[in-house]
Design brief:
Elements: E1 4-9, H1 13-26, E2 31-37, H2 48-62, E3 78-82, H3 97-106, H4 121-134, E4 144-147, H5 153-161, H6 178-181, H7 196-208, H8 210-216, H9 218-232
Parallel strand pairs: 1-2, 1-3, 3-4
Helix pairs in contact: 1-5, 1-7, 5-7, 5-8, 8-9
């Protein structure tokens, strides 16, 4: 049997590292993960949440139907769309003039859409609705999983290796400063934000301690459940 083929639309390359490590804990079968966004040959898309937005918009312009049936994605058994939940606090103007204009023209869901936390699920649901609006007439199918780490994928990283009871783990999914604060910790714990090299060093901890991550982060468990649901339908 050939390896499972997974496509990933993400905000950045450190998100790729974290999501791949999570998948290694969730899945028993071998897989090949391909980063579709950000993609080196499409620099105009950019990185970050507005890069994901532009990918969704570009998809809506070339295709209309269920995302699973998009001919350009036919080679994938699973597609993952990633957005950090802290995007719910952003404004379209943060993405620049083009993004602001597109949002107005296409009547996309409102940003900011952040809700009181806890519970984190309220902001997650609002952000999911916004992401769906970026896809226009394209609907999310049975082979697509939306990955919404709260407040960022760096939260999952922190949950995987910080000592039990660490101050940053208190109400961790409602703290949008967790990933930023990792660089201010003591030498043995500190991680520079968005450093691919340092995130790769911790990837094994994410995989090995994934059960701990899901216990601390409901959105991690939701991601696992969604991936398993897709695999069960294969």
């Amino acid at each position: 049997m050939s390896d499972l083929r997974i496509g990933l639309v993400a905000e950045g390359k450190t998100d790729l590292i974290i999501i791949e490590a999570a998948l290694r804990a969730i899945m028993t079968e071998p897989f090949v993960l391909t980063l579709l966004q950000p993609e080196a040959t499409q620099p105009r898309m950019g990185e970050g949440w507005n890069g994901v937005l532009k990918w969704c918009y570009a998809t809506s312009q070339r295709f209309d139907g269920v995302l699973d049936d998009d001919p350009t994605l036919a080679g994938f058994d699973l597609l993952i769309l990633h957005l950090d939940v802290d995007v719910a606090a952003m404004r379209y103007s943060d993405g620049g003039a083009l993004v602001t204009q597109l949002a107005q023209t296409h009547d996309w869901g409102a940003l900011p859409c952040v809700r009181s936390c806890p519970p984190v699920i309220d902001s997650c649901n609002e952000l999911l609705s916004v992401l769906r609006s970026w896809l226009g007439g394209v609907s999310i199918g049975e082979r697509t999983v939306v990955c919404l780490p709260a407040q960022s994928s760096g939260t999952w990283l922190a949950a995987s290796y910080l000592p039990s009871g660490h101050r940053l783990l208190a109400g961790v999914e409602c703290n949008d400063a967790v990933e930023e604060q990792l660089k201010y910790l003591t030498l043995t714990l500190k991680i520079k934000k968005k450093s691919q090299r340092e995130y790769r060093k911790k990837a094994g901890e994410i995989s090995n301690n994934w059960r701990r991550v899901t216990e601390l982060c409901r959105q991690a468990q939701a991601f696992e459940d969604a991936v398993r649901a897709v695999l069960s339908r294969r």
